[in-house]
Amino acid sequence: MTNNHPKRRSPKPSSPNNNHHNNNHSGNGNGRTNGNGKGSKNHIYRSPLLEEFRNNPNKNYTLKDIFGSGIEFSKDQHGSRFIQQQLSSSSFEEKEVIFNEIREVALDLMTDVFGNYVIQKYFEHGSDVQKQVLLEQMKTKIHFLSLQMYGCRVVQRAIEYVPLDDQVSIVVELKDSILACIKDQNGNHVIQKAIEKIPIEKIEFILDSLRTQIYHLSTHPYGCRVIQRLLEYSKAEDQEFILGELSKYTYFLIQDQYGNYVIQHIIEHGKPEEKNAIVDTVTGSVVEFSKHKFASNVVEKCVMFGNEAQRAIILDEVLKNNEEDNDEPVDDRSPLGLMMKDQFANYVVQKLVDVSKGQKKKVLIKKIKQFLKQISKSNYGKHLASIEKLIVLSETAVTSDDEE
């Protein structure tokens, strides 16, 4: 779901890049309680040890130096980061002392803005016993954690680092709420992680839960991501089922705010016959789709990932009424004229300049130059940058290809 033109894309939901276990977190801790009491709205009471730690960033501390303060440090921005860094290199004994301090409040830490990162690190660097202790606290709480902003990161990290049986146990707790999780801004990441990390035959209930919802989920801001993961990891027959469902709605998905990402994914990663069906739909409406905010993404992907014959068909559509290598002016209402003036379609033209070859590329560049001379740039001020880019592309493009 990669977008090349941020200026014209609707923001990806949670975009997520949405790595729900990214350890680069920010915040200043203002207004937070730390287990040692609460002051006024803008003041937090911290222990002398934590204050000293925060005020001496250049002093070399180890986990031993904060024994007895594991919970307070875990809930503090700087303390949490310190523990995370130390857990990757500390001795088992040091990690065990801190773990024993926080284990009774582990569930609370899982949903804490800074504490969740400490729990994640224990799944990554902790012992098998420590991981089992954490899993025990998570039992019957997976659904709650998966829908919580910080808890969902812990569930994802657990799925990455626990044995297969435990992975399956985690996801089985979500068996009756798969759709609800997929449609949730946090829960969808847990379902994606499960699909990526667990053998699909162990979690077939995920697809079973949404067999009647393929099109609906493909047009959903979070569901479209899960459909893409299923296309990547499902068994061949299940992929065929999903593609079969999607094929009924190709024309509409191409133009959908979220469905276009699913179609792009198929163009980029699908089998030739799967791509062909989409390209066939696109070639019937090249200008219409190229001028569409979302469909234009799909046309670009067809240009980039289609075969030579498919690219040629699209280029022929764009050059209709301008295919002759002559000095005739470009009609404003011709496909090329309409596309060059359009805020979305001009990117398709740019992509065609990038990837086309031979005589047709020479004609395309010639016609672009002609049209740019014809139009008054002042009339298209908001697209000026795009038109300038076309000028640069057309001037610098290699026009001596002999591929044809």
From TrEMBL:
Entry's family note: Belongs to the PUF3 family.
UniProt feature, compositional bias: Low complexity: 15-27
Cell compartment(s), UniProt: Cytoplasm
Source species, domain of life: Eukaryota
Keyword annotations: Cytoplasm, Repeat, RNA-binding
Name of the protein in question: Pumilio homology domain family member 3
GO MF annotation list: mRNA 3'-UTR binding
GO CC annotations on file: cytoplasm
Sequence segments annotated as region (Disordered): 1-43
Gly residues composition-biased segments: 28-38
Keyword Cytoplasm belongs to the record: yes
Primary location: cytoplasm
